[in-house]
Amino acid sequence: MKIIVFGATGGVGQYVVKQALEKGFEVTAFVRTPSKIEFTHEMLNIVQGDAFNKEEVTAAIAGHDAVVSCLGSSQGMKKSTELEEMTKNIVAGMQAHHVKRIVYTASAGINKEIPGISGKVIMKMLKNALMDHRKAVDCIEAHELNFTIVRPLGLTNDALTGKYRESKTGVPEKSRTIPRADVAHFIIKALSDEQYENSSIGIAT
Using an 8 Å Cβ cutoff, are 51 and 71 in contact? Predict the structure, then answer.
């Protein structure tokens, strides 16, 4: 499978690139700063570009079987439409080149699904980022793409375990975190497993 990864130098994206290569995927890393990828691989192609540039995004998507988005906003907790804007460019590029499969890394809370008082506090604190993710997901779902929306709980830098729980309707019970490496593990798994097509999955350890 040939995939293109947006946000390839980010916390989750860098793990997606490495794990996909380990699985024998051909990987294009779409990055603003190529020097941030500090290794080479015969199956890795690095493309310099800006996800806010529709033409650059569209050109990069050509010839791929699937798209992985691990993009994040530069605005932190502030109100932003960055994720929505970049996702619109990705969707336009996919349509231009008839690419249907996308795995989009969002966040738990985009469906107001984190339970309990602590969940409400977290969702209120992250409301701007969650709103931006929600609009990006709405864009994907509105364009008849074959999508998997990944909704991880709190991200950590712990080592890969390969052991985590999944929920289609909400988030896994009695859990609050998941390593970034395990989010990447799920993304690679979802790309190759039809049960995750056209679904939104909450994941946590």
Answer: yes
89 Cβ neighbours under 8 A, 6+ residues apart: 51, 52, 53, 54, 57, 58
> CB burial class (10 A; 0-12, 13-18, 19+) of residue 80?
middle
Question: Rounded to 5 degrees, what are φ and ψ at 109?
Answer: 110, -15
Question: pLDDT by residue (tens digit) across 168-182?
Answer: 989 999 889 999 999
Cβ-based neighbours of 29, under 8 Å, separated by 6 or more: 4, 5, 8, 9, 13, 17, 37, 44, 45, 46, 47
Tokens 């738990």 correspond to 108
- Residue 68's DSSP bridge partners are 5, 103
Cα(3)–Cα(80) distance, rounded to whole angstroms?
27
Work out the number of other CB atoms within 10 angstroms of the CB of residue 73.
20
Q: Other C-beta atoms within 10 Å of 56: how many?
A: 17
Predicted structure pTM score: 0.96
